[in-house]
Specification:
Elements: E1 10-14, E2 27-34, E3 37-42, E4 46-50, H1 51-58, E5 72-75, E6 79-89, E7 97-99, E8 104-107, H2 111-117, E9 125-135, H3 138-144, E10 148-152, H4 155-159, H5 166-174
Parallel strand pairs: 5-9
Antiparallel strand pairs: 1-2, 1-10, 2-3, 3-9, 4-5, 6-8, 6-9, 7-8
Length: 188
């Protein structure tokens, strides 16, 4: 049996042939991947909510800093869409955080939302509602079916590239023309 190579801190780049309405042309950041399955956040699908609207639901008395109110909240995946996740540059001190790489952490506690809204949070962050999850072996099977390509996560794409350009930026980093790849490529 081959040892599982963890894809934590990698991007899943949806192949053009992936026609699932939720994951079509998606770019997903993998937060956890082990023998039990995988969990990630889609980082290029905007939700209909901005930071001000989210904070109004969690902390009505908070005044949101100018320039932060319109920060787009992402639709992180189809699972538990009422749960919030913050991917951010490394900065400790939050109630519920996990280090994903030397430069990236994920936090699920509300204290970081208020800090982001008042410009006292991490330098870089993206906020998502919901997540993408795979059971044991499911992601590996989807990769064998050519639904996804993987590439090591890039902090610039993660935090600085506009939402609507993230997928193409990851594709460009792969160095291949994904439109030239046949859906069944790699299977003899």
């Amino acid at each position: 049996m081959t040892e599982l190579k963890s894809l934590q801190n990698h991007f899943l780049v949806a192949m053009p042939s992936l026609d699932d309405p939720y994951f079509s042309r998606s770019l997903t950041y993998i937060c956890e991947h082990n023998k039990d399955g995988a969990m990630g956040l889609v980082i290029n699908q905007p939700s209909t909510m901005n930071l001000k609207e989210l904070l109004e639901q969690t902390d009505k008395d908070l005044t949101v800093a100018e320039g932060k109110a319109e920060q787009i909240i992402l639709a992180g995946g189809p699972v538990s869409q009422e749960r919030g996740f913050v991917l951010h540059s490394s900065q400790s001190g939050w109630d519920s955080s996990l280090t994903l790489s030397p430069d990236v952490m994920i936090t699920t506690s509300k204290d970081i939302l208020s800090a982001i809204g008042t410009n006292t949070g991490p330098d870089s962050s993206i906020i998502a509602l919901g997540y993408a999850g795979w059971t044991a072996g499911q992601l590996e099977q989807e990769m064998q079916d050519n639904s996804w390509l993987t590439i090591e996560a890039d902090d610039d794409i993660l935090f600085n590239t506009p939402i609507h350009k993230k997928w193409q930026a990851a594709v460009n980093k792969l160095g291949v023309d994904v439109w030239q790849l046949a859906p069944g490529a790699g299977h003899a």
